[in-house]
Design brief:
The chain has 414 residues and is α/β, with parallel strands linked by helices. Among the domains are: 106 residues, NAD(P)-binding Rossmann-like Domain (Rossmann fold), CATH 3.40.50; 173 residues, no CATH class. Helices cover 47% and strands 13% of the residues. The protein contains 20 helices and twelve strands. The strands form four sheets. A four-stranded parallel β-sheet has the order 2-1-3-4. Helix 5 packs across helix 17 and helix 5 crosses helix 18. The longest helix is centred in the last third of the chain and has 25 residues.
């Protein structure tokens, strides 16, 4: 079923928009002559009147037959309404957002649905640069974590999946999105190795693991002590090990700053391990990068041309994906935007998220990072750019606090 069929079906339904901000106002004025619109909002008291429209109380939505909700609100607003309704949206399965709906009204008939993490968003941003693609396709991207944790969004994606011609998803064993894409004619599956695994296993070389402090109560306590843990999404096991050996924060940073901290054979082993991991992860995937990585590594192009290597890989994926959706590609080099930098500006990914060890930089001969590179340090109150040692000093203090809290938590359990 095409997205045009979806619009035809929507015309027969009761249209209720959620939101009363600028986006909602623009949506209303652009479409008031095409569809009959009512509204609801989470701002119960402040928004008693909106553009002269009839207001619907959320609790009454269940009594409206064939209701279709178009979201004109922010993610925060959507979460607020969901929490206030105690997930009362569970009975409604039809959602869209204002951008998709209006693109459908313009007659676009093909929907390309992308879900994943920050590096799938790089693909989304890159595909928009493919000439004329948005004349034919509605391009949509949804964060996997948002789909997983937000009932409202999950149902919206489920509804959209009925009309999508293409879906792009990560290949993971726990990706619920597979339940939604079963009916989509063409599916493009990402290997989970694409981009994600390359950072920790080649470039960082730090033995990165998952966020160290998993207990939500301890995370809340830790946030109070070190402002916010957003910047510390991964655990540097080297730092953990050194702290557990009794090193001070200063000694830890001095140790990992040594250019010979890693022996070359260790990093060679990490590279070989990554290639083996990627080979297995690439099995059955439509988008795979292992051969491309090996070829570029052998030529030292991937690391030596001065361009952030994640940007190179993202463009490789964009070109491969465009071929899979039968799109003729002609992207002049000058039109290949810096995807990492673009999404950093939008606060979607970070251009220099995690410091690269000097020993790793020396071994691989990296040109896109040097001893003066500043790394993005983000918390609730401000964004700072810090050099390697300053960043790792902050990070080491975070890990020390985390270890102390975990020890106290375990001791109190006995």
């Amino acid at each position: 079923m095409s997205v045009f069929d979806m619009v035809e079906q929507i015309y027969d339904k009761n249209i209720v928009i959620f939101g009363t901000g600028e986006v909602a106002k623009k949506f209303y004025y652009r479409n008031k002559d095409k569809i009959n619109i009512r509204y609801f909002t989470s701002n119960w008291d402040q928004e008693a009147e909106f553009c002269g429209l009839e207001r619907v109380e959320p609790i009454d939505l269940k009594s409206i037959r064939d209701v279709y909700i178009i979201v004109c609100a922010s993610k925060i607003g959507t979460c607020v309404i969901e929490n206030q309704l105690s997930l009362q949206f569970s009975y409604i399965t039809q959602f869209s957002d204002h951008e998709i709906f209006e693109q459908m009204l313009l007659g676009k008939r093909r929907l390309l649905l992308i879900t994943g993490l920050c590096h799938q968003q790089l693909l989304f941003e890159g595909l928009k640069c493919v000439r004329d693609i948005e004349q034919e396709y509605i391009l949509t991207f949804y964060w996997y974590g948002d789909i997983k944790n937000n009932v409202l969004l999950k149902k919206k994606v489920f509804e959209l999946s009925k009309y999508a011609e293409f879906a792009i998803a990560l290949k993971t064993g726990i990706n619920e999105f597979y339940d939604y894409i079963s009916s989509i004619p063409k599916k493009i599956i990402f290997s989970n190795s694409c981009l994600q695994a390359i950072y920790p296993q080649i470039v960082w070389g730090q033995g990165i693991g998952n966020t160290y402090l998993e207990n939500p109560i301890l995370r809340k306590k830790l946030r109070k002590r070190v402002e916010d843990v957003r910047v510390f999404r991964y655990t540097d096991r080297n730092v953990v090990k050194l702290l557990q050996q009794g090193f001070s924060n200063e000694q830890v940073v001095k140790e990992i700053s040594r250019k010979d901290f890693y022996a070359n054979d260790t990093l060679s082993y990490e590279y070989d391990k990554m290639i083996h991991y990627n080979r297995n992860a690439d099995l059955g995937a439509d988008i795979a990068l292992t051969d491309y990585i090996i070829e570029n590594y052998a030529k030292h192009k991937l690391f030596l041309d001065g361009e952030h290597f994640s940007n190179q890989l993202a463009w490789k994926i964009v070109l491969d994906t465009a071929k899979l959706i039968d799109k003729n590609i002609n992207i002049p080099e000058q039109e290949k935007i810096d995807l990492i930098h673009t999404l950093t500006q939008k606060d979607a990914v970070w251009e220099y998220e995690c410091p690269v060890y000097p020993s790793v930089r020396e071994f691989f001969g990296l040109k896109w990072v040097n001893e003066n590179t500043k790394y993005k340090f983000v918390n609730l109150y401000r964004t700072r750019e810090l050099g390697f040692e300053d960043f790792m000093m902050q990070y080491t203090e975070y890990i020390r606090c985390a270890l102390d809290l975990i020890k106290c938590w375990k001791d109190s359990a006995y």
